[in-house]
Amino acid sequence: MAQRRASRRRSETVASGVAELVPDPDRDTAFTLLLDDAPQSHVDLADPAYLQFEYVRRMAAAIDLVAEPGRPLRALHLGGGALTLPRYLAATRPGSAQRVVEIDGPLVEMVRRELPLPERANIRVRVGDAREAVESMRDSAYDVIVLDVFAGARTPAHLASLEFAEQLARVLDPGGWLVANIADGPPLKHARAQVATIRAVLPQACLVADAAVLRGRRFGNLVVLAGRTPPPVAELTRRAAGDWFPGRVETDLDRFAAGAAPVPDASAVASPAPPAGLFGNRK
């Protein structure tokens, strides 16, 4: 069995580094995508509703709750990876029109070849820079925007500014939602600034994360759900608390931001690099 799994492992040099598809030892149809040893995505081809990473489950829960179950959504995914969430939406909300923007063309080709999309999934992938793509889109084009862009293990600075957040708000339907993945650790300076930046244009928001991450005790992922109407806090709280790895929902974002100001292009910086060895036990 171990030898068969090893024969299914794939490794290629793509634009953003070395991409590896590693078979899941516990699920015969599942793979983890690594980029330069950092886990980027997990996909089960036979069960796209199975989500291995806890922050992806939190993003999916947010999407589940912002519209009636099964209703097709117009979804924009900034950052593609192995297309985990687009596959999830295609399975849980059939008929959704989805667009993905991923800057790494060779990675897109590898994923399409090795992890083919379902035949009836309406998922279009555009190779390009996320900000340039958004700036060319029409107003109010999407019900949901998923922001999960990493160059290596860091979100680029030009995707962390107020000017970019304004563009996201412009292409989002007035009743739509932004679901953003922020990676940060103590003292959460980047996360606080990003919350302030997003809320400057989409003021109704909450955070979902592991309690230790929210308290600034360790590095991890914080999921922001932001829009122009109150988020579904009660149900999101129940979903987060009932997860395999329970999370917490933070609604007092004035307190969380701790006086941080929105970040303009001129002073925007990339998200911090994760601590050395953080991913060492995930391969």
UniProtKB/TrEMBL annotation:
Residues 115-179 form the MnmC-like methyltransferase domain. CDD domains: AdoMet_MTases. One of its GO terms (molecular function) is oxidoreductase activity, acting on the CH-NH group of donors. InterPro entries: MnmC-like_methylTransf, SAM-dependent_MTases_sf. Residues 1-21, 264-283 are annotated as: Disordered. Keywords: Polyamine biosynthesis. GO terms for biological process: polyamine biosynthetic process. PANTHER family: THERMOSPERMINE SYNTHASE ACAULIS5 (PTHR43317). This is MnmC-like methyltransferase domain-containing protein.
